[in-house]
């Protein structure tokens, strides 16, 4: 019996290509969410938004790759999140238990 496969259609070297654009956009979304929730929490004094900003900031740092490190963006997102928490809990007219 002969082989039913066609040798002309056989691909010997197959390279798998990974699309990295989606992961980079996802990182930008985490950073954007961090800034949006931090500003919302600071302006309206919503502690839930500030804690969500911290979680988004940690997710941004956890998904960060070494080649995509932007020190200015990292420092600004972390400092904004932590500054909002400090202002909410220790600022003037802060209610610690609400």
Automatic annotation (TrEMBL):
PANTHER family in the record: CGI-140, PAT COMPLEX SUBUNIT ASTERIX
Any one GO CC term of the record: endoplasmic reticulum membrane
Signal peptide coordinates: none
GO terms assigned for molecular function: protein folding chaperone
Lineage, uppermost ranks: Eukaryota, Amoebozoa, Evosea, Eumycetozoa, Dictyostelia
GO BP terms in the entry: protein insertion into ER membrane
Protein name according to UniProt: Protein Asterix
Family: Belongs to the Asterix family.
Pfam families in the record: ASTER
Keyword set, alphabetical order: Membrane, Transmembrane, Transmembrane helix
Residue ranges of the TM segments: 29-62, 74-92
Keyword Transmembrane helix: yes
Organism: Dictyostelium purpureum
């Amino acid at each position: 019996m002969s082989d039913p496969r066609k040798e002309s259609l056989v691909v010997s070297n197959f390279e798998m290509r990974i699309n990295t654009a989606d992961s980079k956009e996802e990182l930008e979304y985490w950073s954007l969410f961090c800034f949006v929730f931090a500003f919302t929490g600071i302006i309206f004094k919503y502690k839930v938004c500030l804690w969500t900003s911290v979680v988004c900031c940690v997710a941004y740092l956890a998904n960060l790759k070494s080649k995509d490190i932007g020190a200015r963006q990292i420092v600004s997102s972390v400092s904004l999140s932590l500054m909002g928490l400090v202002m909410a809990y220790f600022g003037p007219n802060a209610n610690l238990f609400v």
